[in-house]
Amino acid sequence: MATTKQSIFNRVAKHLLAQNKQAKKHIDHALLCAYRTEDGLACAVGCLIPKRDYSPQMECGGVNSLIWEQQKRGYKIPKYFSKYKQFLIDLQLIHDGEEPKNWRQCLEDFAITNNLTMPS
After folding, report:
1. At what angle do helices 5-19 and 103-113 cross, to 10 degrees?
2. Residue 24 belongs to what H/E stretch?
3. CB–CB of 31/25 below 8 Å?
């Protein structure tokens, strides 16, 4: 089955709305959003990275860094990340830049802007 923007959005929206909490951890003495946390939380992009492929080395920056560094650092990310880079960055901004109480409205707006439907 091909990965589409709609399938990515469905997975991220369901994940964020169910989790209802930002994935944050201390990185370099600051509390920052993270792909995955020790207590099992994941961000909008982190939830797309299979648990078996996650590495703490991925906590090096945003989606651009993740894509750029993957070969050098030897970790695996889904192949579609490069194809949908800006789309993933925009989803990440919802997780990182908005309070969880605002996520549903942000996701609904995102769906409209990107000609997608909200998952049920």
Report:
1. 170
2. strand 24-27
3. yes
Q: Are 29 and 45 in contact (CB under 8 A)?
A: no
Helix (H) or strand (E) holding 72: helix 63-73
Asked whether the predicted pLDDT for residue 16 surpasses 80, the reply is yes
SS3 label, residue 42? strand
Residue 103 token pair:
């996520």
Nearest to 36 by CA among 49, 48, 46, 44: 46
pLDDT in tens, 33-85: 999 999 999 999 999 999 999 998 898 778 999 998 887 888 899 999 999 99
> Which one-letter amino acid corresponds to residue 13?
A
Q: Phi first, then psi: what are they for 36, rounded to 5°?
A: -145, 150
